[in-house]
Amino acid sequence: MTSQRRHSDVVELIRFVEDLRHRLLVAAEPGGDQARELAERPAWIRGIDHRVEAHALGVRDLADSVSTRLAAERSGVGERPVDIAELHAPFTHQEVLVRRALGLGEDVTVNPSGGPLAANPLIAAGLIRIGEAASRISRGEASRAVAHATSGPCLQQNLVCVLEGEG
């Protein structure tokens, strides 16, 4: 039996995640001078929040994501219009639940990258959603974006990150 994985597959994922890590760390720097030196249009994290729901599936409504809604409120999603949203919804029904919990209108473009239905690398998928949203802002394709990451059974843990460009 042979493995279908190739060394280059893993190396490319590691490079992608490393690139995202550096972009996000630079954008978090106080003052932002270094970020402006490295990127013509840096993406800034304007709000971020993480919430966890009960582990036992029988004690919560699986047709709603309360933790996503709370994280959206605390991170400021509804304060201004959103251009794009990168949602970590590895199952199609979760995209509906997360979109509703975030309060996203029909005019918001969801997962222009293809989202986790196109690629869902273990552990890195949520960070990739943030990186994809930041990249859209840096390229001038969006002014304000929301990124979502989840973990655990049935949307148990949810992180919401609001990113914006300057001006």
Strand order of the largest sheet: 1-5-4-2-3
User: Which outline best applies?
Assistant: globular
What is the count of helical runs?
6
How far from one another are the termini?
A: 56 Å
Helix and strand content put the structural class at alpha/beta
**Can you tell me the CATH architecture?**
3-Layer(aba) Sandwich
Offer a few descriptive terms.
167 residues, alpha/beta, Peroxisomal Thiolase, Chain A, domain 1, 5-stranded mixed β-sheet, 6 helices, 5 strands
Tell me about this structure.
The chain has one domain: 3-Layer(aba) Sandwich (Peroxisomal Thiolase, Chain A, domain 1), CATH 3.40.47. It is built from 6 helices and 5 strands; from the N terminus they run ααβαβαβααββ. Residues 5-11 have low confidence and may be disordered. The radius of gyration is 16 Å and the shape is globular. Helix content is 40%, strand content 18%. It has 167 residues and is an alpha/beta fold. 33% of the residues are buried. The chain starts with 6 loop residues before the first helix and ends with a strand. The chain has helices spanning 7-27, 33-38, 66-75, 92-102, 115-118, 125-138; strands spanning 44-52, 84-86, 109-110, 144-151, 157-164. Strands 1-5-4-2-3 form a 5-stranded mixed β-sheet. β2 (84-86), α4 (92-102) and β3 (109-110) form a beta-alpha-beta unit.
